[in-house]
Amino acid sequence: MTPVYLLILLAVIGCMLLVDRRWSLAFWRDARAATVCLVVGVVALLVTDIVGIALGVFFRGATWAMTGLLVGPELPIEELGFLVLLSYLTLNLLGLAERLSRRSTR
Residue 69: is it exposed, middle or buried by C-beta count within 10 angstroms (0-12/13-18/19+)? Predict the structure, then answer.
């Protein structure tokens, strides 16, 4: 077991930070609102994961690239990184869509 997948997730989140910083899409536009949205998004997706695990729909697919660390039954630590990435990507895409729609109405 290696931290390859977790490190890749962290690198991509870092890239999302750079994109956000460059074009002020989420945190560099309104840090408080972006933090609330990110936390709400991660919690909502985490609840969905927990319900899916409890129902037997979701399960951990262990590979050589994962650390093997679990934060709950069938819930690898990499899943938290993925949920942060997914929520942050959504925030950046919404920020981009808003910016483009404002540009097109001028």
Answer: exposed
